[in-house]
Every structure is written in C-alpha cells, then in structure tokens.
## 1
Amino acid sequence: MLALLWLIHTLINIYVWLLIAQAILSWLLAFGVINRYNRGVSMVGDFLYRVTEPALRPIRRVLPNFGGIDISPVVLILLLFFLERLLYEYLAPALF
C-alpha cells in the first residue's frame, strides 16, 4: 500500500510540473519570445495542451472571467496538493 501512495504522489508531482510548463509556454508564446510555428515548440505545446486541458476546462467553466488572466492552473495545483494531503492524512496512518 505504501508503494501505491508513493506512485500517486509521484504522478501528482509530474502533473503539477506539466501544468507549470504549460503556463510558462503559454506566456512565452503570448509575449512572442518563442516562435509558435517552430515544429518542436508546436509539438511540445500540443502535448502539454492535450495533457492539461481536460483537467483545466471544468475549472475554467466555474471560475469567473478575470480578463486576460487565467488562474485555473493555480486552482488545479492547489486542488492537487489538497488531494495529496488528504491521501497522506487518511491513508498513511492506516499503513502504520
């Protein structure tokens, strides 16, 4: 059971880093720092979009419009950390 808890923790951490990478890439594209027509950039951007968008879309529907600011990745990261804390609080004591 401890291995399952470690696996969930690792998957949540990887997903958080993917969310951060998606946010940074979107900023770099918005400010024209990197070229969106570069094949490598478009492949990375497409991968990050496909991985993160299914989780971000429901949050964007619930959040009010803040203009050009998208705080849905921050909300999702906080929810993931909360879920991770719940897992450690309720599953870890049962293991020991």
Note: Residues 22 and 40 are 14 Å apart (CA to CA).
## 2
Amino acid sequence: MFDFSFSELMVVMVVALIVIGPERLPKVARTMGHLWGRAQRYVNGVKADIERDMAIEEYRQLQQKVQAEAGALEQSVKQVTQTADQRVQQINEAVAKLSSSDQATPNQATHLPTQSAEDPSAPPPDNKSA
C-alpha cells in the first residue's frame, strides 16, 4: 500500500524518537499498533460486507434466471399439452365419425348380429332335470 524503503523508515523512527521522546515512545508505538489493527479489522469487515452483498446480488440474478427458465418451461409444457389435447379431440371426432358411418351401413362384415340363430320368441331352455 505505502512504498517505504528501509532508509525512509529509519528516518521516520529517528524523528519520532526525537519528537516523542524515549519515555513515551513505547506507549505511542503500542497505541499505533492497536489503531493499525483496528484499521485492518475495519477494512477486512468492509471487504467482507462488499463480498457478501455481491454474492447476494449474484444469487438474486441466478434466482431470476431460474424463474425465467421455469416460466419458459411451463409455457412450453402448456403448449405441448394444448397441442396434444387438440390431437386427441381430432382423433375422437374421427373415431366418432367412423362409428357413425359404421352404424349407417349395417351390411358390412364387421357388424355382429344381436339375436341368436334360434327362435327369438322361444323361452330360454330350463337347465333343471326332474
């Protein structure tokens, strides 16, 4: 962050020793260390907050993308369902049309007789032996 060479750092320390004095220099150095630690913790906290906010924003964007894809998929499924329903309805209409045309022409071979070959007016046979 700051570009100090060793010689510049030595000059600053000598000036601090002269200005502050040898009695108060350890206390000032300790205070400066505490302040430096606080500043670093503050900067790290701000960085963490920024990273957390960025992650939250990324998650929101991802959620919006997923919701958009889900909506598109839902719309696609609805279209396929409607198409399938229309085709089923067309098939049902065609089957109904064919069955009505089969009933209109009773001479076709596919038509099964409804009465038995025996006399329709005769009562059913009794299966009891006396």
Note: The CA atoms of residues 10 and 16 lie 10 Å apart.
